[in-house]
Amino acid sequence: YISHPNGEKVTKQFLETGKYEVEVLNKRYPAKVYLHSPFDPENKRMHGNYS
DSSP state, 5? Predict the structure, then answer.
């Protein structure tokens, strides 16, 4: 979950300039923000196209 520290709207620019981590079992790992799905960027699977 990402929120703006000043309570402002979270914008694309805000997301792209941030530094993020994911915590798993009390260990932090660097994370990247993807504004589009890296797995299915054109949403073909959502429309039943699995080829």
Answer: T
Q: Is residue 3 part of a domain?
A: yes
pLDDT tens per residue, range 13-38: 999 998 999 999 999 999 998 888 77
Q: What is the pTM of this model?
A: 0.56
Total domain count, the chain: 1
Q: Which residues pair with 28 in a beta bridge?
A: 23
Instruction: Please report, for residues 1, 21, 22, 28, 33, the alpha-carbon distance to residue 25 in angstroms, rounded to integers and kept in the order given.
Output: 17, 13, 10, 8, 21
The torsion angle over the Cα atoms of residues 24, 27, 33 and 39, rounded to 10 degrees, is: -50
